[in-house]
Amino acid sequence: MINKECMNCGSTQFHQVENGWQCDYCGTLYIEQKKQQPPEPIHHQSTFLKQKSRLAIGVILALGFISLGPLNYFISKADNNEPAVSYEPIEIDSPDSTTATKLPGKWTQDIYDSVKVATEVYDADNEKYSFTGGSNYKELEKLVGKPDTLISWEKEEHGMPPRVLATWENTEDGEYVDHSISVTYEKKTQRITDKDYQ
Transmembrane residues, as ranges (predicted)? Predict the structure, then answer.
């Protein structure tokens, strides 16, 4: 190999490495071909050893399936309950603030301003909408009380998931006010997808 020329760079300078020669200039490695050794004889396991290993594998697989049963139960329970969704908190600067305009329910301008609307995401492949971020409707309802009216879309419509429109029109005492507040939220995740003040 020392007298030969490197196929990559043309150098004739080589040095010996563990299993062949390496070009000093570009580092190309030339491995020496070893004489083929006859294949090692195949050792046949006894029938008893084969059965023993199959039994051990069967027991391990059975234990694996048994242990996955309770895990699948808890996973399906979690799927049937509310999904694990992260929400943006409703942070009110001054909870006792009042506004010049009387708002329905326990609403204040600060609460309205702090409600975060989710970002709409469109999946063109499936022609469906989904949402990220946004405040949680249940958290909002604890702050402002139950709405006066609810309108629900039970089925997916034009790629939009089932939603609910909640509207507050009256004060806590039941008096009608000039302004109403509406919030739309995704039915499954309770994520607020829109808000409106009229």
Answer: 55-75
Residues counted in the chain: 198
Q: Tell me which residue of 110, 177, 106, 118 sits closest to 143, measured CA to CA.
A: 106
Largest CA distance in the chain: 104
Other CB atoms within 10 A of residue 164 CB: 18
Helix (H, G, I), strand (E, B) or coil at 177: strand
**Cα–Cα nearest to 185, from 177, 169, 198, 160:** 160
- Residue 143 burial by Cβ neighbours in a 10 Å radius (0-12, 13-18, 19+): middle
Q: How far apart are CA 145 and CA 111, in angstroms?
A: 12
pLDDT score of 164 more than 70: yes
Tokens linked to 23: 């070009």
Closest CA to 89 of 141, 139, 147, 144: 139
C-alpha–C-alpha distance, residues 146 and 134, integer Å? 19
> Phi then psi for 156, rounded to 5 degrees?
-65, 140
Per-residue pLDDT of 39-95, as tens digits, reads 665 555 566 677 777 888 888 887 776 766 666 555 555 555 545 667 778 877 665
Q: How far apart are CA 185 and CA 168, in angstroms?
A: 14
CB neighbours (10 Å) of residue 174?
A: 7
- Rounded CA separation 153/56 (Å): 55
